[in-house]
Each structure stands twice: as structure tokens, then as C-alpha cells.
Amino acid sequence: MTIPDPSSASLPSQPSRPFRREETARDEAPQFVLPLVVRIEKAAPPARTDALQTAARAVLVMLSDERSLGDGEWARAMRDWQDARIRKVVRRARGAEWRRAEALPGITVTGKSAEVRVFPPVPLDGWPKELAKLQVSGTDLDDPEPPVGADPAAPVLWLSPDLEMSAGKAMAQAGHGAQLAWWELDDEERTVWREAGFPLAVRTADPARWRELTASGLPVVRDAGFTEIAPGSCTVVADHPALRHR
Asked: Bias category Polar residues: which stretches (predicted)?
């Protein structure tokens, strides 16, 4: 995997895809995880779809941040993480928990109602104590109103209609989908997306559309099966306009 000098205009080239179970070398490498923390205040929880979209954008912001590239302060951790399985874990925080999380090195990304903070990767057993104390469960969120139809000219991360996932699990899967799309894009396409602020939508496909998407050649996330769903399950298709006709 090539990580160019951060002073250059180019961005990281596409590594091999990490979501296929036959890539056993990834299991043998030291395992790291990308922590994401979603702010869920009791009185004002975020909308589910906005939380998913904000988490996906947070992953893209971390991948493209200059601190993650070349000799940046997070670059070594990012390389170690991407050399193993691309694990992401979403935890929730509120009040003082959120303030402690914000004090750690990372990036906060905001949506319409959601706030998600993404942190540099850490070893599976090496979480900062402020994050290790946070709960994984309790991220069951709802949409006050059904999401509007996705803009066909914008990137869409399509969720499987066949799987039920907690909001935290779906946030991680949306992040995987965004990352696969990022890896598939060339430097110019990445730059355009980044400079636009990483617009994207997360929607659940209807069954007929899902069958078309999974056979379309677009990037597909196949879950490793560590939590909630069976190994190899197709969870997300990354439908970026630049990838539709390749």
C-alpha cells in the first residue's frame, strides 16, 4: 500500500480490499480498530439516518486528513489499521463523557442533528480509558420522518433490506462502504468529493434494487461476522456516480 508524501497533491492509492474472508493474512496481522463516538444526549438524540451519514463522512474525513498521510502524526496508525482487517467500532457518549472524548486527539464531524467524533486507530486491546468506558449498546436511533429519496447525482450508500442492524452497527457498515468508494476513486475524483465536503446519502434499498446493486460491480461490503450478523453477509453497496460506468 502506497502512502504518498502529504505535501503532494495525490492521495493514497487503493489497497487490496479487506472484506473478503479468504484474505487470511489480514487476520494474522496485528489488529487495530477505528473508534467512532456518536453523541446521544437523552433529551435530543440524533436521527438515525443522519447519524449513519455523519459516521460515513467522518471516516472519509479521517482518511483524507493530512495527519493520516505520509509522515503525519496519525499515518503509522492508519497504515497499521489498513494492513489488517478494517474494523470500526461505534460507541455512544453524552454530557461529561462526550466532553472527555472531545479532549482526545480526533476529528468531530457534524450533520443536521448528529455529532460523530472519529479517532486515530488503536490496537484492539489498547483503547484510551476515556473511550474504553463508553457503551457500544444503546445506539438504537429512529428517524422522526422517513428519509427523502436520495439525489441520483450524489453518492449513495445502499443498506441491505434483508438485515436488521443496530444503529451503531449500521454506522460502522456505512463507514466501510464510504471507505471502499474512496479506495476505488482516482485522485481527481477524491479531490472533488473532499472539496465538496463529502456529500453522501445512506438509504435502504428495496429488494429488487438490492439484487441489481449487488450484481452491478460497485463496491460491496461483506461483513466479517464479528458482531450481530453472519460472516460474508452483504451489508452495503457504495454507489458513487464516478464508479457507475466503469
From this structure: 1-16
